[in-house]
Design goal:
CATH topology: Rossmann fold
CATH class: Alpha Beta
Number of helices: 5
Helix content: 25-40%
Number of strands: 8
Strand content: 25-35%
CATH superfamily: Peptidyl-tRNA hydrolase
Length: 180
């Protein structure tokens, strides 16, 4: 069994923001979502090549994601090696998608929450949202929408993330960097 977590914020006003790339990725892969208050989020279950896969979107807001992920992990008795988290990464340029196992939070409050509740040894897909010429502060930037060029290329970026999710499910995820 695998748990695929997309990070984001649940309110409609955050729907197409940079901070919701994790939600965008799992929305493309999951089936029908079911609200699960005991898990502090939404769950979608699917069979992928004989592997039961649980897709999860926390409703606790990005910065408290660890609370819900921990409840899902405990309920299903999962190990961290069975958990993949997809999140935006301000320090990577837009169009870059990287996978890794473990690591520090690098100032990402959602990852900080996950590390506090799980430890650091789960898999991650980091979706780059950064811009070299950005003039906004970090909070305003991650909660803003994509510009026209980024919006046009976002499906390609999410395709890369989807590919890495498939590799994780099949047990073939490597520490790698992709760029559109």
């Amino acid at each position: 069994m695998k748990l695929i977590v997309g990070l984001g914020n649940p309110d409609k006003k955050y729907e197409n923001t940079r901070h919701n790339t994790g939600f965008m990725t799992v929305d493309r892969l999951a089936g029908e979502w079911t609200e699960k208050p005991k898990f502090h989020g939404q769950i979608s279950e699917k069979d992928v090549d004989g592997e039961k896969v649980i897709f999860y979107k926390p409703s606790t807001y990005y910065n408290d994601s660890g609370i819900g992920v921990r409840s899902v992990k405990d309920f299903y008795k999962l190990d961290n090696c069975d958990i993949l988290v997809i999140h935006d990464e301000l320090d990577l340029p837009f169009g870059t998608v990287r996978s890794r196992i473990g690591g520090s939070d690098a100032g990402n409050n959602g990852i900080k929450s996950l590390n506090a509740h799980l430890g650091e040894d789960y898999a991650r897909i980091r979706v780059g949202i950064g811009q070299e010429d950005r003039r906004e502060n970090d909070i305003n930037f991650v909660l803003s929408g994509f510009n026209k060029e980024e919006s046009d290329n976002l499906p390609l970026v999410l395709d890369l993330a989807d590919k890495l999710v498939q590799e994780f499910i099949s047990g073939d995820l490597e520490h790698i960097s992709h760029k559109i």
